[in-house]
Structures are given as structure tokens and as C-alpha cells.
Amino acid sequence: MSAELKRSTDQGxxxxxxxxxxxxxxxxxxxxxxxTRRLFGLAKTIGLFLIVAAVFVLxxxxxxxxxxxxxxxxxxxxxxxxxxxxxxxxxVFRPPNDVGIVFHLIAxxxxxxxxFGLAALIAIPxxxxxxxxxxxxxxxxxxxxxxxxxxxxxxxxxxxxxxxxSEATAVFVIFMASLWIILINTIDGVHRIDPAYLDLARTLxxxxxxxxxxxxxxxxxxxxVTGLRTSLSTAWLVIIAAEMIVGSRGMGTFVWNEWNAxxxxxxxxxxxxxxxxxxxxxxxxxxxxxxxPAA
Amino acid sequence: xxxxxxTATETKTQALAEAAHTExxxxxxxxxxxxxxxxxxxxxxxxxxxxxxxxxxxxxxxSFEVGAGEFVAIIGPSGSGKxxxxxxxxGLERPEHGQxxxxxxxxxxxxxxxxxxxxxxVLLPWLSAKGNVLFALEAAGTGxxxxxxxxxxxxxxxxxxxxxxxADLRPxxxxxxxxxxxxxxxxxxxxxxxxxLDEPLxxxxxxxxYSLQQQLLxxxxxxxxxxxxxxxxxxxxxxxxxRILVLSHGPAATIQSELDVPFxxxxxxxxxxxxxxxxxxxxxxxxxxxxxx
Lengths: 295, 293
What we know:
A: 11 helices, B: Rossmann fold
């Protein structure tokens, strides 16, 4: 019986699994092997990058050269020397005044990850529930819409007033910066679930908890990851400003102290490091996409 | 014999009796003749609100019955409200008036007594083929079946639709025909009394559709359950159904005519297609469909 069934289905032409098609740039290239072609493309990209970088440094040099005699704006060369210095003293730890850049970085990352993590822990479950219930969402939407556009830094005095602690306040500011973005993206993701999945859940008499955990959550992962990426970028932007106000250590504090000491070249170095770390944070969170394979 | 021993024996006997009881209950449940149940559809009406205001009557006064173990096909022109009718039978949508009942009990919400095969297979993309069947079994059967039983049942049904080698593939790695076979395996594995098939083969190419029709025929003849199939394919309806209901052209569609399909079971496609009665019925159905549009 079952052998007969299998035979009848094997007549179908498209019972083979789909194969991925070859990339269009690999096919149809004439006159060069695909490998050579790709190498040439890579060389072009690197060449172009070097030209752009050179032009950038040249313009920078021209703009700052005149200030060399006691001016504040750092030249590329001065910034380079400072970078070497900062990196070579990165692990120096003689508080309160002599603290390496690594410890500033760790302090900032710690605040961001705690505040961001707490926001995700609260916003994701709330988003899943609010997105699944029109009534709840309509009731809470006005609050979300009014609080969302407020700069997270506006919460800083409130945080100080409530928490009376600068460390907790910085975390609180990051929390407020991350919360709304994750919440809104999660709700939006729930709204975009294929309604057929929910029909399926209903015909199976799935319990609400199982539906949320086994259908709504996995179906919403791409939207949640987008929310996490956006909010982590925002949190990284905000922490620098927050630390200029409340921090005793951190990248923001470092920038502020160097400004007060008129070491503008250190600020150029700090900008480079902040940018690189922000980029790496974003890449790390983007890996969460792998949790759920594409549809 | 000390008192502890006697208590242990007692508990064991009790457990055995309980096991026997569960076993007999399971046998009754999986017995095909017992599993099937009749559907009664009484004066169903359904209207949708138009975006610009006013309402559009989709279904008007649809009444019919489906006997226990019967295979009924509903055909009609596209846009006639066939799928809406099936969604009402499934409890996914509520009619404005009228009632659907299963074995005498009115249906107001979807239930696991009514299995559904969707037009767009509706497999969860983050689960494998087997994972999708297991998900349905878990949702419906936690507390009444063990994980091992569900696992075995999922394997068995994937084997029956010829998909054992593809059990670990994800939906995006499956062809349309394979994905729909997973959907069919999922619906059958649930052991619901009634199976509702919403144009299950409508999105497939002709060759795949042909082979899946064979497969559905074999499954439906072996599994004595109640089937309601919505399709726009006259040949498919004639091959599979005991009775065909023709829905009139919308708006306000209703049952326009009804036709018994006399071919004996088990059916053989080639025999049926060679039968002069097949051509007559087919002409009659095409006539009924075209007269309306």
C-alpha cells in the first residue's frame, strides 16, 4: 500500500528538492576565469578605498596644517601619534587619573549591555503580547507614541532624582533609549505574521502560551533582531553623551576629560574607537538572525 | 508477605487496569468507522463589509449534509465563496446566520475534530517537515500521547506520503508538491473525524497535481473519515468524491445543483476515465458551471 503510494508520487516532476541557482556574476562572464574576475574586482575595490582614504587624509591635513603652532585642531600625524600612545597605555590602571582606554571602553560597554539587555527582556515579551491583542495595544499606544520621541537624555535628571546613583542612572538612560525601539519593532513584527499561521494555530486548538512561544516568537525574530540592532546603535550613541554628564569612567567621560585637558587629538582617537566598537556591536547582534532560517 | 508488598501489588494491578483502559480507548478512537462523523450545514449566510460602506453578500442560504465517512466535493466558479464556506465549516469564520454542526454539536470555534489542509500548505518555515507534523501533534495531543508515540506517528505519516527521505528538510527546501504532502500528512496524522481540504492542489502544476490526486484517492479510501473538498477542478471532484455540490456564481452564492458520483470503490483512475458515465458527468458539471457565469 505504502509502496504503491510512493510510486504514484514519484511520477511527479517536481519532487526533487530545489537547488540553489548559481550566482549570475559567475555565469556568462567571457574571456576570464571566474576566479581571476573576482580577484580583479577585489583589487578595484581596495584601490578605490585607498584613494578615498588618501583624499580624506589630505583634506584633513590641509584644514589643520595652519593650526600647528599652538592650535587645537589635531593634524593626521598628531592624531596618529596619539593613537599609538593611547593603544600602548590601553591597559594602564592607576585610578583615579590614569586609566587606560580599555577600562573606559569596558565601563561604557557594561552600561550599554545591562541597560539594553534589561530593555530587551521587558520589551520583547510586552511586544509579543501587545502585538497579539488589539485592545491592549490601542490602550497603551498613546503612552508609547508620546514617550518614544523623547530624547533618552531627558530621562537623565529623572533617573538621578529616583535612583540617586550616577551608575544606575546611566543604565536607566540606556534602558529608556532601547525600550521603545525594541517594543515597537516587536509589535510591528507580530502584526506582519502570515494570518494563515494563526488560522493553523486555531484549527490545532493551540493554547495562547504555546501559540506565542512556538509561532508568534519565531515568526517575529527578524523584526525583533532589527529592533535590537537599531536600539543597540542608539544606546551606543546615547551612552557617550550620558557619560559626559554622569560618568566617572567610560568613553564619554574620556572624551569630556580630554576636552577639558585640550587634548583634541585624543578625541579623534576616541571617535575612531567608538565607531569601530559600534560597528562590531551591530555585527554581533545581526548574527541573531541565524536563530531562525529564512522562510 | 509484608504489608508494603501487598500495597505495591495493589498499585501495580491498578496501573495495569488503567493501562488496559487507555489502550481500549485508543483503539476505539483510531477505529476508522468510529472516527468519522457527519456534518450538517443549515441555511448558512455570510456577508462581508465593503471598504466603501455597505455589505457584499457572499453566501446565501447554503444548506447540505455530509454523512459520516462520506467524501463531498464542492465546486464552483472562482470568487463564488467556496473557500469562505469551508472556513465557516472549520469554525475559522462565523456565518451571519445559520449553523454548522458536527455529530449534532454546533461548531462555533475551530477544533481538532475538524482537520484542515490549506491551499498554501502553511508550513512553519523554522521547523523541518517532520517538525511541522510533530508541532501539530504536540499542540493537539499533549497529555494524551507520549513524545515517542507522536514521533512514531509523524514518521509513519511522512512515510505514507513518501516523504521519509525529506523529513529533516525545511519548507523552503521542499518543492510545492512536497510541501503540500507534508500539509496532508499533518492533517491526517491528527486523526480528526472530518478533513476539510481547501483547494489543496490548486497551486500545483498539472503533473504534480495528477500524482497527488492519486495519493489523496488512496488515502481517503483507506482512512474512512468524512471529507469535504473545495476545488475548481471537475475531474478531481469526480475522481475523489461520492457526491458533488455545485455552488452558484457569486454574489450571494448558494448550492445550485447536486450530483452523485456512482463509481465503485476502490476506484481506479483509468477505469473511471474510460467509463462513458464519466464523460456525461463531466459534461454535466461543466455545463452547470458555465451556465452560471
